[in-house]
């Protein structure tokens, strides 16, 4: 499967989905004009990846800000990755947040509760 490597822009996050390098990162700001359209290829990639995931999958989220429409897409992505754990394979989701950004920490707690999967919360 070809990797997805998207550089961060003013409105969209940096996304790395590379099964060979075992890199799965979402970082930056997510306020695209059309979240559904922006995240569609990402969701398709994850949908394919979960059919034959690596022995262990570590997904990293280091978001600075995201809008409401991005929340739905990010939640869908997390839910797809959770399928790996349902298959009995190791899945780790890391949620990075700046040490003084309580809102981003709380957003991660909310995502963790919504997908019913424990996250590792990492301050930086």
Characterize the structure shown:
The model has no long low-confidence stretch (mean pLDDT 97). It is globular and about 35 Å long. It has helices at residues 35-49, 68-86, 102-115; strands at 4-6, 14-18, 23-30, 57-66, 91-97, 120-123. It has a single domain (4-123), classed as 2-Layer Sandwich (Transcription Regulator spoIIAA), CATH 3.30.750. The chain contains three helices and six strands. Strands 1-2-3-4-5-6 form a six-stranded mixed β-sheet, covered by helices on one side. The chain starts with a strand and ends with a strand. Helix 1 (35-49) runs parallel beside helix 2. With 124 residues, the chain is an alpha/beta fold.
Outline:
The chain has 124 residues and is of the alpha/beta class.
What brief labels describe this structure?
six-stranded mixed β-sheet; 124 residues; 3 helices; Transcription Regulator spoIIAA; alpha/beta; 39% helix
Write the layout of secondary structure elements.
Elements: E1 4-6, E2 14-18, E3 23-30, H1 35-49, E4 57-66, H2 68-86, E5 91-97, H3 102-115, E6 120-123
Parallel strand pairs: 3-4, 4-5, 5-6
Antiparallel strand pairs: 1-2, 2-3
Give the amount of beta strand, in percent.
25-35%
CATH class: Alpha Beta
Q: What is the number of E strands?
A: 6
SS content category? alpha/beta
- Report the average pLDDT across residues: 97
Shape descriptor reads: globular
Number of helical stretches of at least 4 residues: 3
Order of helices and strands: EEEHEHEHE
- What is the terminal-to-terminal distance? 32 Å
List low-pLDDT spans: none
Helix content: 25-40%
Radius of gyration, CA atoms, in whole angstroms: 13 Å
Describe the main β-sheet briefly: 6 strands, mixed
Provide the spatial order of strands within the biggest beta sheet.
1-2-3-4-5-6
How many domains, as an integer?
A: 1
**What is the fold-level CATH name, i.e. the topology?**
Transcription Regulator spoIIAA
Please give the CATH architecture: 2-Layer Sandwich
